[in-house]
Amino acid sequence: MKEYAFFPGCTIASRYPYYELLVTRILDSFGYTLKYPQTVTCCPEPVSLPIINEIAWYSIGARNLAIVEQMGLDLLSACPGCTDTFLRINNTLCSDDSLKENVNDLLNQIGRSFKGDIKTQSLLRFLYEEIGPEAIGEKISRPLHGLKAAIHYGCHSFEELREYDDVDNPKSLLVLSEVIGAEVVSYPSEKVCCLSFANPIDRNYVLDTLHEKIQDMKRSEANCIVLMCPTCHWQIDMGQIVLEIEEEKYGELEPLPVFFYPELLGLAMGMSPSDIGLKEHEVEATELLESLGI
Amino acid sequence: MKANDMQIRPLSSFYANLFASENLGFDEFVEYSRELINNIIKIGTTVPIPDFQMERRKSIGLPPIKFDNEEIKKIAKLTKLE
After folding, report:
1. Which of A1, A140, A210, B1 counts the highest number of beta carbons within 10 A?
2. What is the rounded distance in angstroms from the CA atom of residue A259 to the CA atom of residue A180?
């Protein structure tokens, strides 16, 4: 069994423990063991902290990387936001000796040191490159024919997509979705941000944008949404419930179930809906899954 | 404070540009961000993990996850984040 250090991130750990368990089970079935760092903190989050105090952002992130480096393992990150943070911090510190020295001066004062000698990758990249569509295809016992998936990559995926996919027309999640039997539909607002960061700032703008995105997906005949990011999942899943509540403004909305790709993979591998933790979702997926015979 | 007034590295500027182009409230964003950052310093995460989720983790066989903020507090002092 090959081992990787595993960083679930705050959002998965706090909101989606069943999904976290599912990820470990799926990777175990492909021959991978995940080891948790002894202690972690927020990655730290890639949006506000680098704007407000960049050196703190680099230092906290480098500290997390330093802890994983001591494990002697490469890092697998389940959250695209965390992956974005780690890649940006690692790549910048490894190419800027002066900044790296400043950060290590700080880290040395807490007994840590960042080297930059491990590889960090997202779960999506891991599934696509390390495991690969062919190996995934071999484990599919129940192809999800009838699923029409609207893919939402989420903003924080794009830093890494640049390295292994086509950032203008990414295909990694498309290929992985097709290998489990789903049809992927494209829609105009594919690259529109979920706007979770703007929730406390302009709620109307957030809901208007989300509504338009969901309508785009439905016009493209999607019957579900597929993504990898837990923040996007929470935003789009819960956001549709809010849109339903605000029916007077947005009209009647039949929300679309929102899946993490590994959840669909688990179903296609023969797991049951209760195995994959759908109880953590706000939008019900029962009717859709029953229509697929699940 | 306007987004474009800040010295922002290119990789962070996506959000700054979004704020500027969509006329979103950057000052409100900074205020909200302070709350997230204070959580990181106080408890080690932006999103507190409720006790019931910690129990759920244990009941379904996930390893305990320890968010340790002691070293973060020191970094916060050294970088004037606090």
Report:
1. A210
2. 13
Q: How far apart are CA B9 and CA B37, in angstroms?
A: 19
Q: Report chain A residues whose CB lies below 8 A from the CB of B71.
A: 41, 63, 110, 112
Please write the tens of the pLDDT for every residue from A226-271: 999 999 999 999 999 999 999 999 999 899 999 999 999 999 999 9
3-class DSSP state of A34: strand
Who has greater pLDDT, B21 or A191? A191
The one-letter code for the residue type at A131 is I
The CA radius of gyration of chain A, in Å to the nearest whole number, is 19
CB within 8 A of B9, min separation 6: which ones?
A: A50, A54
- The answer to which of A65-79, A127-141, A255-269, B1-15 has the lowest mean pLDDT is B1-15
Interface of A with B in 2-21 (CB under 8 A): 8, 10-11, 13-15, 17-18, 20-21
Q: Which of A51, A88, A197 is nearest to B5 (CA)?
A: A51
Strands A120-122 and A183-185: unpaired
Chain B environment of A200 (Cβ under 8 Å)? 28-29, 32
